[in-house]
């Protein structure tokens, strides 16, 4: 996180211009997501008369609009969580899944699927699994009250590994191919039938909760000792960051399953372009995550239409090369 553009360079005009540009890009991607797919429509067709226009409105409003809003919200939540975790752990390669939150959600969701429950129960089980892993991580990592980044990271990695192994066990216990396919699709990340009613308000609330603390986060990003010397309440702030990141990850995973790399790539790319000032980076990450996931979901729907790919496959195929580039870039600086 040393590639900083100094926070002092951020002006009100630059902040407004950048966020306005990202908002326009998000709007353009949302319109493309609504109009393009296995069947494409022009925006003005939605206001025309006739049976074709009615069919177009039905497809857009019933199928594509909820999916578009879900992609926007999930992408924003993952990118926001990634930004906060990279501040919390002071590691630009941290992402929302590194602390085991998504692993807990996976165990909860797959257990519910294996028990033959409804989709609503699967979502609730995923949320419960995410929060159980969060509480467990707290109990283990804060046992010595040190709250160090290293202890938190190592405990999270161990939890994530355990949850991954448990999820594999649940997959092996699937009694038939149909159920196994559904479980694998959930783990790959899929926005088909995703509901935005939880994720979108959660994104707004969590962003409003941390954005006013951006100046303190700028200080915390310089290290715990610097933050303490400047009078920042570091322990309380780290607590807040952790729980907001965990809540954002839980809401995203509950809505769209395991969608990787958005929370890793988007904050890092924005940091390279915009600098490290959290007054700009936090809202930019929320907008940028939505843009990236909307683009990935559009590719997932249109690449092999009418067949649809899990959006998590698209983000992984695009994200792995970028992730490797980031690793190489970091190694070159060491």
| Structure classification | mainly alpha
Average residue pLDDT: 83
Q: What value does the Rg take, in angstroms? A: 20 Å
The quaternary structure here is: single chain
Give the helix tally. 13
Helix percent band:
over 70%
Report the β-strand fraction as a percent range: under 5%
Order of helices and strands: HHHHHHHHHHHHH
Say how many strands there are. 0
Task: Sketch the major β-sheet.
Answer: none
The 3D shape can be described as globular
In angstroms, what separates the terminal alpha carbons? 12 Å
Give the low-pLDDT segments: 2-7
Membrane topology: Multi-pass membrane protein
Subcellular location: Cell membrane
Main location: membrane
Protein name: Iron ABC transporter permease
Structure characteristics:
disordered N terminus; 13 helices; globular; mainly alpha; 334 residues
């Amino acid at each position: 996180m040393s590639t900083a553009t100094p926070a002092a360079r951020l002006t009100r005009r630059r902040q407004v211009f950048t966020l306005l540009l990202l908002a326009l890009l998000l709007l353009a991607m949302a319109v493309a997501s609504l109009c393009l797919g296995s069947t494409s429509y022009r925006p003005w067709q939605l206001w025309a008369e006739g049976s074709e226009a009615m069919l177009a409105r039905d497809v857009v409003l019933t199928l594509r609009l909820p999916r578009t809003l879900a992609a926007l919200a999930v992408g924003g939540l993952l990118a926001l969580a990634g930004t906060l975790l990279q501040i919390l752990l002071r590691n630009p390669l941290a992402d929302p899944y590194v602390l085991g939150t998504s692993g807990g959600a996976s165990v909860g969701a797959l257990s519910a699927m294996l028990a033959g429950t409804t989709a609503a129960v699967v979502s609730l089980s995923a949320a419960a699994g995410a929060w159980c892993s969060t509480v467990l991580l707290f109990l283990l990592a804060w046992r010595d009250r040190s709250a160090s980044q290293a202890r938190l990271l190592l405990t999270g990695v161990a939890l994530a590994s355990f949850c991954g192994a448990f999820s594999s066990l649940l997959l092996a216990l699937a009694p038939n191919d149909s159920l196994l396919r559904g479980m694998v699709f959930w783990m790959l990340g899929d926005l088909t039938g995703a509901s935005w009613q939880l994720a979108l308000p959660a994104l707004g609330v969590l962003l409003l909760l941390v954005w006013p603390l951006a100046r303190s986060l700028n200080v915390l990003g310089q290290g715990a000792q610097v933050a303490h010397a400047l009078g920042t309440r570091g322990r309380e702030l780290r607590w807040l960051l952790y729980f907001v990141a965990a809540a954002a990850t839980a809401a995203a995973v509950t809505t769209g399953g395991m969608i990787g790399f958005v929370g890793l790539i988007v904050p890092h790319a924005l940091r390279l372009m915009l600098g490290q000032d959290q007054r700009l980076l936090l809202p930019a990450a929320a907008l940028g995550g939505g843009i990236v996931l909307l683009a990935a979901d559009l590719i997932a729907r249109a690449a092999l239409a009418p067949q649809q790919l899990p959006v998590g496959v698209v983000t992984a195929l695009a994200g792995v090369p970028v992730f490797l580039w980031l690793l190489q870039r970091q190694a070159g600086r060491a």
